[in-house]
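QA checklist item 7 of 12: single-chain prediction sanity check.
[x] sequence parsed
[x] length recorded as 344
[x] structure emitted
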Amino acid sequence: MKKYVNILLLLLFLFGCKKEEKKEPVSHDSIANSEVIILNEGNFQWGQGTVSLYDPQSGEVKNDVFQSNNNNRPLGDVAQSMTMIGDTGYIVVNNSNKIEVVDLKTFQSIGEISSLNSPRNLLPISPTKAYVSDLYEDDIYIVNPLDFSVKGRINSAGWTEEMVIVNGKVFVCQVDSSQLLVIDAATDQIIDRLPTAHSPQYIELDKNGNVWVSCSGNQDAKKPALQQFNSSNLQLMKSLSEESANQFFGEIAFNSTKEELFFINRGGVGKLTITDTTLEEMAFISANNRILYAMNVDPKTNEIYLADAIDYQQKGIIYRYSENGSLITHFRVGIIPGSIYFKE
């Protein structure tokens, strides 16, 4: 009897140790035709970060593109954001403490920027310089995107997120102190700190080069707000707040003319023009009990792409809307789709 038990245990062990099936590489033609790139975060500490590609002409979706085209090597833990510089993509993998550098024509890895703590976003400053924000380090890294080296740091004294550059000044969302840091890009020195509403995280530039910031607020009666700052004199131009602290503002994105701003809130997706002084009560696109986790607007078509994280466990859904808010289609991607990008 013991003999048969041992054989059964051996069989269970062998089947349990079966290797994961190797993913087939995605063809270069499919990559070239895919105009939309989706980063799927995956769950924290599960190493589930993935890349999905979407071709809006054919409707073709390719998932797990990085792993498929890199000998089945996983991307890493929490695919946070991506910056495209020419034909090179810089994928920030937050909990893997790195930036994976890929050839956008093949999605094969060409290197990585390592020795980072908890990177969040990369902003190009010049061909040989970029800034990288960080969650835990209390510093903004200065890196060389060409040789993947870390060249220095700017002490931020707090958690930093999205950044933009205009007229030689870099505006950085500092979340935990509710400020916009203003950095002189030539000297790498902080030249000002602008108070914001609670928890600024997302930032964009309008057609006039002025800065728009989405501040999420919190449950302690600190209301969320959308704020506009003059990038020249650094003055607050307007602050649009929700009545309830139970509301929030999430990701923001402009249309192609940089005159209409779309934003995620609890009701779904809101819309305003840069001259508006009040917020519409009615959602432009209703949430409909979805967890709207990310958004972007295609600069070529003004179509709106929305990511639904569903339950943060199963594969998420991308919804594609026309510029007037009509649903065109939807498709499945990876777990927790967190960022949407469009090729130039």
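[x] summary fact logged: Residues 2-16 form the longest helix (15 residues).
[ ] second reviewer sign-off
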